[in-house]
Amino acid sequence: SVPLSYFGGIGAASKKGILVKGSNYLEGLTQVKTVVFDKTGTLSEGVFDVVRIDRSTGSTLSDDELMTLSAAAESYSNHPIAHSIVKAAEKSGGVVSNVSEHTEYPGLGIKAVFEGKTIAIGNLKLMAQENVSVSDLPEAGSDVETHIYVAVDGIFEGRISISDKIKPDSKDALARLKKSGVEKTVMVTGDTDKVGRAFAADLGLDDVYTEQLPHQKVEALEKIEAETKSVNPKSKVAFVGDGINDAPVLTRADIGIAVGGVGSDAAVEAADVVLMTGDPIQLADAFDIAKKTKSIVY
Ligand code: ADP
Ligand code: MG
């Protein structure tokens, strides 16, 4: 039977906008020694500004045309990068959404057909998959810029550099986690080594895995879990993520925590705990409530 105060704990959590899907997860939180985070939309805002557009030497498109084609390809995607590119294109005036085919490659990007042209938009892994040779471009500016490459009918057209920001409460939340007994914080991201490491260093995380495709995120979690449990088999690992690509890891983790608000329905469904507002401080609150509840039970 479940001690009554666990229901109290679930109630206290829900008053703070934290949905706990069972008393076992509240108890489980008190045993978490390692917290693994997704980057985009979890510790970062997931709202990207377009900082620069670099077109290839041979491109006949204007910057605005490149943005319009990009936004067309991204218009059916729920990825935070897609939302940001559509928003930027709206500002420059041209958004069209009548693409005839649309394929999303998780951790890579999008391919779509618009007015008979095949547009591929995503990272260098997508360009390699599509046999697009990316010509020399000026070296990128800052470490925290994510580069999105655009090809039309297999020809490289240009690079859109976008930049995300750390959420204002991420650092406070991480500090509070450490105070409530979490020993290790790790980021697992599909973004590049450069960007992932810059974010991890800024946040003061203990470890970072970069360039991880969705299935590799599960493998990374399993490795982290094995390390954590080798110290103490009772220790648990929590994963915190927001994206549709995060559902497999959320399911696999001892405790899967979805960041709601901006997060995808798939993530919310796969999770054991849901942070409804998307503010990372809710994560620290969840750990505190779990601890308090346990101290009442025993
Ligand atoms: P994260 O781990 O940061 O949440 P994802 O696994 O969702 O990232 O995506 C990893 C990378 O794949 C992105 O940094 C981007 O380069 C590329 N990507 C994924 N989806 C898209 C998209 N819709 N448009 C452009 N690029 C994308
Ligand atoms: Mg994500």
Automatic annotation (TrEMBL):
Q: Where in the cell is it found?
A: Cell membrane
Family note? Belongs to the cation transport ATPase (P-type) (TC 3.A.3) family. Type IB subfamily.
The protein depicted here goes by the name: Potassium-transporting ATPase ATP-binding subunit
Q: List the taxonomic lineage.
A: Archaea, Methanobacteriati, Methanobacteriota, Stenosarchaea group, Methanomicrobia
- Full-protein positions shown: 510 to 807 of 856
